[in-house]
Automatic annotation (TrEMBL), chain A:
It is found in: Cell projection, Lamellipodium; Early endosome membrane. Pfam families: PX, Sorting_nexin, Vps5. The keyword Phosphoprotein applies. It comes from Huso huso (Beluga). This is Sorting nexin-2-like isoform X2.
TrEMBL record, chain B:
SUPFAM superfamilies: PX domain (SSF64268). CDD domains: PX_domain (cd06093). This is Sorting nexin-6. Residues 1-144 form the PX domain. Belongs to the sorting nexin family. InterPro entries: AH/BAR_dom_sf (IPR027267), PX_dom (IPR001683), PX_dom_sf (IPR036871). Gene3D superfamilies: Arfaptin homology (AH) domain/BAR domain, Phox-like domain. Pfam families: PX. Keywords: Protein transport, Transport. The keyword NADP does not apply. It comes from the Eukaryota.
Amino acid sequence: MATEREPPPLGDAEQTDFRELEDGDDLFISTASTLESSPTSPEPASLPAEDICANSNGPQPAEISLDDDLEDLFAEATEEVSLDSPEREPILSDEPSPAVTPVTPTALVTPRVEPKTIFVPAMFERSKEELEEEANGDSFDMEIVVSDPEKVGDGMNAYMAYKVTTKTSLTIFNENEFSVKRRFSDFLGLHSKLATKYMHIGYIVPPAPEKSIVGMTKVKVGKEDSSSTEFVEKRRAALERYLERTVKHPTLLHDPDVMQFLESSELPRAVSTQALSGAGILRMVNKAAEAVNKMTIKMNESDAWFEEKQQQFENLDQQLRKLHTSVESLVCHRKELSVNTAAFAKSAAMLGNSEDHTALSRALSQLAEVEEKIDQLHQEQAYADFYLFAELLSDYVRLLTAVKGVFDQRMKTWQKWQDAQAMLQKKREAESKLQFANKPDKLQQAKDEIREWEGKVQQGERDFEQISKTIRKEVGRFEKERVRDFKAVIIKYLESLVQTQQQLIKYWEAFLPEAKAIA
Amino acid sequence: MMDAGIEDNSNHDFSGYDVRVTDAAQNGDTFVYVIKSQQISSDTEYRVEREFEDFEWLHHCLLTQEGVTGLHGIIFPPLPAKPGTSLSNSEAKTKKKIESLAMVDDWQMYCRALEEYLHLVTAHPVLVKNPAVHSFLKHRELPLKTKVKKGIFNKLTQAVEELRKEHHKDIDDFFQNERDSNLTLTAFTKAAVEKFLEIVLTEQKIAIACGHFSTALHLGIGQDDDPADYAFAKMCLKLSEVLDTVKKNFEKVAENDLNTLGFNLELHSRFQDAEKEMLFRRTCKLVDVETANKNLGQAKPHKKAAMEDIKKAADKEFDEISGMAKVEIQRYHRERVRAFQKALIELELAATCFCCSSTGWLSLNSSVQNNYIQNCTVWN
């Protein structure tokens, strides 16, 4: 079926790709409406699908209005499923869920080859449960693993290459299991493409993990200490979570960039993601300009829902930040405990060695061993505390920034609409003035301009309605996902706590006979 | 309860004591400890209030008592370090180094340390006979309580010019071995105490951090109208409960650690020091003996008799000390091993017991919580 794809030797191949794609890069960064498939894409099989998808400008309006109704229908279905606790668990965990029949939304695939309208009735054909699960974004049977961080290159040009493995039974992909090598800037590039395409129409695009100049420099320089391995591990986990979140979004999953990212062995290098590049500086300037603009837009909010939501998210943001600080301090102390326990273990061992009384000596050595094991346990618990909580919290803080961004986009859209209306008004006034001045050709021009601006006003209004609708849906999705994510993490945390306690018991119980045997 | 009238040496009962330090109250700058004691042979219970100075007085009396052969061969039970005021406690905490139990902000531990001291004194076959012990335990006011200078104890330990005597080679292998092993053990025990107390401190810090986390989870709980927020809030509350348990767990663990192994290690660190002091005293006596011998050899005939007497006195004292020391050392080791065993077993039992109960709570609640949290996502 598909051609054999092997990750090419990253060293030279990347460079050549990059050079070839100087123009291709710009194409990707441009807006969605002019999206063209990459000239160097090695996937002839999926090309037609991409072409057709490219014609559609993101989400189709028709599908959205029906989605809302469908969601109401599935309200009860949602309740039923969530009460079945054991079934939900495998869905939430990262492993592939054998208990749940894989939902292959084959119907979802067909619209890509046919005109848009078919999408709607196709959904009705599928079973209620399947659709509800798909609407929840739960088990669409796709597993992404980011693994095997490998240092490539030397010195300051070195970078970490991560292996991205996808296991899926979705037919939009050519194979069921495939893996590619990606570096961090590739992820950033993917995010920037998605953000450009989707943020301004109201989709919450999951933010990519943060850059860290200090962390990466340590890795590049080759420091093989625990902090750099921890950094790499942290980043790996963050990248995995980022991809999982991105593909959970039904629209983003079908985005050609995302699919290309997951499938194609070679990817044009996203240079403009570098912090200190020209594009990077341009981005910073733009962000500053946007921030200023935001302050000056005073919007007439006709829908209280948006205001409430914004306030709510503001509060949530505060809360999450505070929680994050607490968790970090907890993690810090746990690490300290682990260090201290290890130090004591050594101390006890030395004491045991210098002790004359044999039984006491042995007991003390045993104690030292127990304490060492406990130290390991504390380290693992710290890991659990950290990865389960702190990372999730910081993910959500960044996600909330994306949410806020989407609300801001709505304001901008509204502004554009208002501006168009103002312009239309001016044109109308100009036209009425010209009517008295009796200049026929200018009048005609004025009438043409009026028509043009009327069109723009209508478009502006439509855009505004659309973004509002999208945001509502997205926010609903976000809320559900938020509760799900936190629930999963809390359950895992509880389980790890229980496990730690049980292990502690085992260790101490093993120690008792030694202690008793002293005298 | 004044017993001054009945108290006289002939009525002294040397049977065992049951001593408890039950309370500590702050009286201005100092703490006052309530000591209750009862002799096993009698029914009368005595209750006195003592300050730390009184303990120092008792210790001084024991060290300087007369009429006991081989007094300097006794390993005197060590007195706990003087309790700091709250100011020095916080200083110690900022120094991040714990050197004695007095710095761990826990008056109960300190009372226990004092109680242990009194136990050791009253359990010692020789020391318990000292009338000062009786006065201490029974009299409201201590007789002839002169303000004991703090520096007086240092005289019995090492004066600077006598430092070199410490390394003086011993004539007896038993004692030489004992001195060597004491040296190593002291260093290691001190290190172990320090590290262990740091563990306890960190455990307490974790407990506090859990508390903060738990409180932070309570923030933002207010708006009930939004279903997502409501579910989220419920989850946070549940997690907050769990964290409270974790916090209590750590507090208990820290307390337990301190009560068992921490206490034991610290006590024996001080005991090692006491043994060291005793061995040093003996070594000094040994040096005296050798000096006397040398002087005798070098003495002019008319001084020979005097020198002979001195030598005989020194020899006698040295033999007495060595005799007492041997007994004391063997007793000390027996007690030490036994106490260590007790501490380790207690540590283990309490740790297991507590882990069991919290595992029980956590796993019981884990399944309950799972269902609870599942239900949190039901909304529309």
